[in-house]
Prior knowledge:
Elements: H1 3-12, H2 14-48, E1 59-63, E2 68-71, H3 73-104, H4 115-129
Antiparallel strand pairs: 1-2
Amino acid sequence: xxxxxxxxxxxxxxxxxxxxxxxxxxxxxxxxxxxxxxxxxxxxxxxxxxxxxxxxxxxxxxxxxxxxxxxxxxxxxxxxxxxxxxxxxxxxxxxxxxxxxxxxxxxxxxxxxxxxxxxxxxxxxxxxxxxx
Length: 132
């Protein structure tokens, strides 16, 4: 089998296509959430804590005036907020999908017991009643 044929077989599997779609949608979803966090959620939080823009928070740790070395922990805080909101949104989505699946799945009726089991139960019940 040639390399091209192996690749074609690999791509034609349904899971690969599903994964590709999920990655593309996830990337777009991440951009939307980042925008919501940066443009909608963080400004009021910054206002509540004194007008602080979290992405501009830095800690100078050394260097010269021309080449200042800083720890940009504000960017880390922003990325952490983005992650938490994405995680909450994905959790809510998965929980919703799982509850919809449970509603679709009707509980399967227990199969009827075999005839010999039914007869044995009848004999057991008669013995308990003292009729045998």
